[in-house]
Design the sequence.
């Protein structure tokens, strides 16, 4: 008998004659699509968890913001990042199968985002061409994430409805942090210690 | 033979960390004498209760989410074989490999062999209750493989040659000064001027583990959720150590209890709203990673999932007890428990401490092996109110007390009391005779054990001259 | 209204004043109180210590004794909690569906004192007089099993002469827990120590609650400390009038 047969057999025996019908799940909670995608709320939530938010009136301002954060430094970018988001003052390294050591050696990373959740202050990356492999937004110490306002949704359920589970997903709510010392939140452990979110109006 | 083998089985002894070395009251007595531990626990649990209460208060549909969370878990348990097969197929279709482990020993063997096959002699680990439960670190060390814990609290425990005492924050029993001392003593190359400022301690851990993250080729993780419909696994964390382990190595091995499976992608939304607010008291934890098998060119290209029974099928077999399997390991019940706050997690013996541990550990091992745990509660009910998936822990405690082996003298006394109380005339006579404190000296101080435990710190009331029913009869 | 008194074994044996006060209070409010003499104990101690089989005969007795009454009251949140939540469950697990449904019926008609007064009789001002500084401990089963909420506080606020002071961390368990206080005496004592500290911090003369069991625990600790603070059941405060107070 394989371990698989053994475990499944035990579970079936444990359930006995209990009929395997789906139990009725009361779904009285707020469904996907409910609530307004409130940009002000998102900004407040991000700031509350020590992310820095930059609100741009138009997309043309993004390069200026990146300059102020990372000017004079080396950044890694995903292959599909819009080139006009980068100022001339940064040295951009495109991630074309860079090694982890190479990525860890740069100062920052600039990516786009897939979705943002207002209620929780969460940015979701889905490794699309303008966001890149998961490790590029992990190893550098400064992460600048450019978010279009039409990517903002109200709550967690709405966010799940927008993303594809077959893609690797990274949900980011503020810079890396820990609650492991006396259960108080402290920012800055292994992930980027500085998270900047740049919002731009819908395309 | 097949029928016998297919019966639900408890977790075997001799491997893993589900059994304590002494009964709860004895271990608790020692913990209660540790003033530093008491202060650390009170500070930490008070902090988290305040934070959690505030962010739960922001959610208008919290009770609806709890009700949905409970029902989704109950549904998943009722359809467990079908959901596990669905999960297995989805993971395999996405390029992952699924393994089944009947118990701790088998899971340890599978993981050890998978690591050996890569040629690695070191693995990095994301904090995982399942691997703590099965004693994976000890098994790997015995095979010459070094396990490196990367979660800050797990690192503190590992460097301190200590045991975890909390589900979420295994080093909750340590304060910042103690953590600093452990780092100074055990962390190679640490700055000798390290202060006990929490950001400085976190930065020390960052420096200490950076090279490990960049150079270790194999990682071991647990999983908070597995979605049957899509084959997606999710790990919820804070520090980024999880992301490091889940994306940097070539090989990722995830060990997951079979009860972690949930049916659909939409269901995940319910738990992602419940878990962070109930556990760390955050609207959302800093990082959540989700992966479905292998993504070509991004992250580990060898992805394994080990599905662990280790007593869970035995829990499932108890129609009342099985709700303990709904637990999402948030540790809210620990943080509100007046017993946990005073004794700490080590007193429970098992890696699962606190109220949920008191109902889960005895079921995983069989009640006889953790017989004192169901009694380690005043049944105050704070855990039930705090549980984000509404596990009725007080009900389970009482249920398990009925299964616990009872001292013969106690059983005889209980039967006699029930007999007497079922005969009002005998009962009234017993009331008149039972002038306990008169029999036992002033204020009950001469009582025999176990009643002497009461009288050690509390006076018994003076018995009244007349019972109520005597008064009523004379009225 | 005709109301059956479920006295509880603890009040009957050790705290008859709480039960007598319940009778006096309800009679003063114009109701008829009956005491079915065949009642003994609800069996909670047996259930919570792990003896549901022994408890079953007591459940059967309780249901038989109280089934004829439309309204039952007990001066105990804990015992009402047992009747309402444990009796039917125990009967059902023992396979006695008929007993279970009868137990549910009795459970529905059984009230803790503050519930009876506020919800059934519709009074919060019971005309009491109690010139003392009082703090209220919401016992765990009243609070979390019965959800009596602020009913006892509303009743206390309406008592003339009473100076009600808030108990810090009131919702924390006092550490009694029945068998817990004996089997885990050290932990129970540690919980009690914090409760006593909070009671003493209020500088109240009297600590009250709706459960004689928790009051026995808290009172036993206060007595050992010679703290000079009394424990008095909620029923006794509500039954107190200027005449009774004058009598001392």
Sequence:
């Amino acid at each position: 008998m394989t371990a698989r047969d053994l475990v499944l057999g035990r579970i079936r025996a444990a359930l006995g004659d209990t009929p395997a019908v789906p139990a009725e799940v009361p779904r009285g909670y707020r469904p996907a699509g409910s609530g307004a995608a409130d940009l002000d709320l998102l900004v407040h939530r991000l700031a509350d968890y020590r992310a820095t938010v930059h609100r741009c009136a138009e997309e043309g301002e993004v390069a200026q913001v990146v300059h102020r954060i990372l000017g004079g430094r080396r950044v890694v970018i995903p292959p599909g990042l819009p080139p006009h988001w980068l100022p001339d003052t940064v040295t951009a390294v495109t991630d074309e199968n860079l090694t982890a050591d190479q990525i860890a050696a740069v100062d920052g990373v600039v990516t786009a985002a897939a979705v943002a959740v207002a209620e929780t202050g969460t940015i979701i990356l889905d490794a699309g061409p303008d966001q890149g492999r998961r490790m590029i937004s992990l190893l550098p110490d400064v992460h600048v994430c450019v978010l279009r306002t039409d990517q903002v949704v109200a709550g967690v359920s709405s966010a799940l409805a927008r993303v594809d589970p077959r893609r690797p997903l990274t949900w980011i709510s503020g810079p890396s942090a820990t609650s492991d010392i006396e259960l108080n939140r402290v920012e800055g452990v292994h992930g980027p210690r500085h998270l900047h979110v740049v919002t731009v109006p819908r395309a | 033979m097949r029928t016998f083998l297919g019966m639900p089985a408890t977790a075997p002894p001799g491997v893993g960390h589900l059994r304590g070395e002494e009964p709860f009251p004895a271990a608790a007595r020692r913990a209660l004498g540790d003033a530093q531990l008491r202060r650390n626990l009170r500070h930490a649990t008070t902090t988290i209760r305040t934070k959690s209460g505030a962010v739960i208060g922001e959610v208008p549909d919290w009770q609806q989410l709890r009700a949905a969370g409970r029902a989704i878990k109950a549904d998943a348990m009722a359809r467990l074989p079908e959901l596990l097969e669905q999960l297995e197929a989805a993971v395999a279709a996405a390029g992952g490999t699924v393994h089944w482990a009947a118990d701790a020993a088998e899971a340890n063997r599978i993981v050890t062999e998978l690591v050996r096959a890569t040629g690695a002699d070191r693995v990095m680990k994301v904090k995982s209750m399942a691997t703590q439960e099965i004693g994976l670190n000890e098994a790997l060390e015995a095979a010459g493989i070094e396990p490196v814990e990367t979660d800050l609290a797990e690192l503190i425990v590992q460097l301190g040659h200590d045991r975890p005492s909390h589900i979420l924050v295994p080093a909750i029993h340590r304060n910042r000064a103690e953590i600093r001392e452990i780092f100074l003593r055990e962390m190679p190359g640490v700055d000798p001027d390290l202060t006990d400022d929490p950001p400085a301690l976190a930065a020390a851990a960052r420096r200490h583990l950076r090279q490990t993250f960049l150079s270790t080729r194999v990682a071991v993780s647990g999983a908070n959720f597995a979605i049957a419909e899509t084959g997606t696994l999710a790990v919820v964390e804070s520090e980024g150590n999880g992301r490091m382990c889940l994306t940097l190595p070539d090989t990722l091995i995830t060990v997951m209890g079979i009860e972690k499976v949930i049916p659909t992608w939409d269901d995940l939304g319910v738990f992602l709203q419940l878990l962070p607010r109930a556990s760390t008291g955050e609207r959302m934890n800093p990082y959540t990673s989700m992966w479905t098998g292998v993504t070509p060119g991004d992250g580990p290209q060898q992805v394994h999932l080990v599905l662990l029974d280790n007593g869970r099928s035995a829990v499932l077999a108890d129609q009342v007890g099985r709700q303990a399997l709904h637990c999402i390991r948030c540790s809210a019940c620990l943080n509100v428990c007046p017993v946990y706050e005073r004794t700490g997690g080590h007193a429970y013996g098992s890696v699962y401490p606190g109220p949920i541990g008191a109902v889960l550990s005895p079921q995983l091992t069989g009640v006889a092996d953790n017989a004192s745990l169901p009694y380690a509660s005043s049944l105050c009910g704070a855990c039930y109110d705090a549980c984000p998936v509404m596990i009725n822990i007080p009900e389970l405690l009482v249920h398990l007390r009925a299964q616990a082996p009872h001292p013969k003298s106690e059983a005889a006394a209980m039967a006699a009391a029930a007999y007497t109380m079922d005969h009002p005339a005998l009962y009234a006579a017993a009331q008149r005779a039972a002038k306990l404190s008169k029999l036992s000296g002033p204020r009950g101080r001469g009582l025999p054990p176990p009643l002497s435990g009461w009288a050690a710190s509390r006076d018994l009331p003076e018995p009244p001259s007349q019972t109520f029913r005597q008064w009523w009869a004379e009225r | 209204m005709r109301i059956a008194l479920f006295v509880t074994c603890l009040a009957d044996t050790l705290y008859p004043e709480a039960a007598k006060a319940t009778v006096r209070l309800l009679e003063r409010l114009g109701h008829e109180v009956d005491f079915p003499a065949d009642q003994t104990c609800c069996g909670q101690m047996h259930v919570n210590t792990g003896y549901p089989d022994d408890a079953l005969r007591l459940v059967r007795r309780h249901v038989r004794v109280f089934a004829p009454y439309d309204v039952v009251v007990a001066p105990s949140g804990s015992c009402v909690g047992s009747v309402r939540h444990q009796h039917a469950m125990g009967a059902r697990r023992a396979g006695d569906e008929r007993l279970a449904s009868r137990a549910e019926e009795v459970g529905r008609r059984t009230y803790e004192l503050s519930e009876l007064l506020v919800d059934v009789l519709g009074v919060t001002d019971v005309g009491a007089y109690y010139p003392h500084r009082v703090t209220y401990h919401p016992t765990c089963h009243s609070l979390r099993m019965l959800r009596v909420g602020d009913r006892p506080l509303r009743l206390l606020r309406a008592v003339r002469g009473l100076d009600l002071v808030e108990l810090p961390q009131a919702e924390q368990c006092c550490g009694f827990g029945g068998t817990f206080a004996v089997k885990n005496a050290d932990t129970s004592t540690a919980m009690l120590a914090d409760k006593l500290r909070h009671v003493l911090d209020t500088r109240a003369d009297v600590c009250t609650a709706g459960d004689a069991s928790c009051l026995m625990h808290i009172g036993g600790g206060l007595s050992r400390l010679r703290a000079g603070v009394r424990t008095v059941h909620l029923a006794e405060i509500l039954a107190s009038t200027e005449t009774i107070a004058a009598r001392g």
About this structure: The radius of gyration of chain A is 21 Å. Chain A has one domain: 36-200. Chain A has five helices and twelve strands.
